[in-house]
Amino acid sequence: MFGGSSNSSGSKTQSNIKTDEKPPSPGSTLNASAPTPIRSAAIRSASGEKRSGNGSPPCRDYNGGLIDKKRRSSGVSSRASSFLASAKNTLGLSPSSRSSPDMITQSPLQKLGKQDPALAVPQGQHNNSAGESVPGPKSTFRVGVWEDRNKNCRRTMEDTHAFLYNFLATPSSNGEVLTKSKPEHIAAEGIGKGMVESDNGYFAIFDGHAGSFAADWCGKKLHLILEEAIRKNPTVAIPELLDQSFCSVDAQLDKLPLRNSGCTAAVALLRWEDRITIDKPAPAIPSRSLPAKLHEVSSMEKDKMMTGSPPMRTVSSSSLDAVSHTKRKAATVRQRILYTANVGDARIILCRGGKALRLSYDHKGSDEIEGRRIANAGGLILNNRVNGVLAVTRALGDAYLKDLVTGHPYTTETVIQHDLDEFIIIACDGIWDVCNDQDAVDLVREVHDPILASKQLVDLALRRFSTDNLSCMIIRLESEPPATLQTTTTSEKETEPEPEGSVKISEAEKIILETK
């Protein structure tokens, strides 16, 4: 009757007697005048007899009970071993896989790298996810990165960053793309044909949530997707191509195994472009020199504003007609343009004359505009989180919330003023949770080493008890552009055709080919 509930009690009694049992002595607590049956019961108990506990008498056939117990224990052990082996096979931890160290340490990204060489690119200097990228002779900027897991608050590091010193070369003024070939075409040619040194920079920080998979994937792939979009659509505005690239990343992440992983993204693209001007170049766009106006523009309004190039927006329609009829007198000015795109709460800050100019938008549940968008899409904001779960209202990945958490980025376009613009800060929300834009600019403005400047910002966040992973990237701009990139006329550009049959590859393509 009590057999089912007495196993644990009996085993405990048995172990206690075995450990505490001593040879009988005259001073023993057992009464010498006790009846023989009680003494024999104690001896039987000490010898391993199964007891029912609570003072119940011992089983009649204690030897048989012990054998039954061993049989039941053996059966349970075999079933447990079978279950454990099945679980190991499911997780890829079978004995055969244990013999291969590569199988144990492989992450989902590394497994996907067998099909996609871009995902197998090793980390470069400063833990660069895009691979090894170093400044060249034409480089007029320097990149510094510093990151910290914040071990007191976080068990894992879910931030990723990527940068390239020689991003895809800018098309010439007649629209011809300098790098025509694709990786699969130039694979047979090898990398001996040379790489285009463009002085165009790509910079990005990805802050992952629900694991680092989405952030790691974006660090390896987003610049390649953007490069391909620019190559195929050389006449399309860069902000529109950034939007297309972000949406393409979203669609591809939705097809990958870890669909619950997501990340915020802050991406900046620094390019030299030829801009047509009349009489004298327009050094900057007035609307871009006013931070207040830039902050007040919503993402939808910003997309509408990005349909034309900035200098053309400052010229009247009659002047544009004059340009079209006086091409020989028109001049092209080589200007440096900074394009940005972000989803989530990672920020991009430009230091212009010592003032912090924010070029990103915080997509948070606490934002009124984003809250209305979520409500119109059928969701709700609970505790400043989308459906009470996600703190950001825009992100890449997060397939389970994709109807609400869009991947369309906030984009900006800014003409760099070489006499005013000093550096760019890109950092995850772990920095901005404890530091405002102007404080960050003031802290690092006089620190000309971008690596040291990045470290100082991360250290400041740690001192102010930030509880998140910390990543900071600083891009230092040269005060004066190189002489070779100054004003040239249209006729001069047309007299320098690209050599026929030449094969030039971008830095991103070169990195992948070297990995193969």
From TrEMBL:
Region (Disordered): 1-141, 302-321, 483-507
Pfam families (UniProt xref): PP2C
Domain PPM-type phosphatase intervals: 142-477
InterPro entries registered for this protein in UniProt: PP2C (IPR015655), PP2C_BS (IPR000222), PPM-type-like_dom_sf (IPR036457), PPM-type_phosphatase-like_dom (IPR001932)
Biased composition (Polar residues): 89-109
Annotated keywords: Hydrolase, Metal-binding, Protein phosphatase
Top-level taxon of origin: Eukaryota
Compositional bias per record (Low complexity), positions renumbered to this chain: 1-11, 74-88
GO-annotated molecular function: metal ion binding; protein serine/threonine phosphatase activity
Gene3D superfamilies according to UniProt: PPM-type phosphatase domain (3.60.40.10)
Family affiliation: Belongs to the PP2C family.
Protein name: Related to phosphoprotein phosphatase 2C
